[in-house]
Amino acid sequence: VCAGIFCFVCPLCRDREGFQTEMFMMGIRVPARLPLWEGKHTYPAMNRRHSRCDASECVCPGGREQAENEGPWQLLLCCSCAAKGTHRFCSSLERTASSCAGPATGKRQSTWVPLGRGRGWQGLAAS
User: Fold this and answer.
1) Of 93, 94, 82, 85, which Cα lies nearest the Cα of 66?
2) I need a surface site. Which of 91, 106, 114, 126 has the fewest CB within 10 A?
3) How would you class 16 by CB atoms within 10 Å of its CB: exposed for 0-12, middle for 13-18, buried for 19 or more?
4) What does the alpha-carbon distance between residue 47 and residue 22 come to, in Å, rounded to a whole number?
5) What is the pLDDT of residues 17-76, one digit of tens each?
6) Which CATH superfamily is domain 49-102 in?
7) Cα–Cα distance measured from residue 105 to residue 83, given in angstroms and rounded to the nearest whole number
8) Alpha-carbon span 98 to 103, nearest angstrom
9) In the chain, what are the domain boundaries?
10) To 10 degrees, the CA torsion angle through 84, 49, 80, 42?
């Protein structure tokens, strides 16, 4: 209740509208206000998104700061921290940058190997 209706979402799927409607029908009332611990300018940096290419060599004609919504100059952000990113064309950045999520978290090698004709696929046994 201290968080207000703007933070009142389903804990599983993060749905707001349907969840609030159901809770209202069940008799749960939440005040329409901002959370008590937040002021108007409490977290201004959280509204900003990383907006530059961090590739070692950026080849974008518009420079590191240019980004498009789609195409080769779309800025792809790290899915672990969103604090690093590159243009789609500038790098083969994995979905997770190893410098922020730890080594071996971007590319994963398959643990499945073919066993030969007609034998299907089988997982590797732990050694």
Assistant:
1) 85
2) 126
3) middle
4) 29
5) 999 899 889 998 887 776 666 666 666 666 677 889 999 899 999 999 998 888 889 988
6) Zinc/RING finger domain, C3HC4 (zinc finger) (3.30.40.10)
7) 16
8) 5
9) 1-44, 49-102
10) 130
Neighbours of 99 (CB within 10 A): 13
Tokens in use for 50? 């990383």
The one-letter code for the residue type at 107 is: K
Which pair of tokens denotes residue 86? 């590159």
CA distance 16 to 18: 6
Which three-class secondary structure state does DSSP give residue 121? Answer: strand
Question: Could you report the per-residue pLDDT of 102-116, keeping only the tens digit for each?
Answer: 544 444 433 333 444
Q: Give the pLDDT band of residue 6 (cuts 50, 70, 90).
A: confident
18: helix, strand or coil: helix
- pLDDT computed for residue 63 by the predictor: 93
Look at residue 4 and tell me whether its pLDDT is greater than 80. Answer: no
User: Taking the CA atoms of the chain, what radius of gyration do you get in angstroms?
Assistant: 23
Query: Is the model's pTM score more than 0.90?
Result: no
Point out which residues pair with 47 in neighbouring strands: none
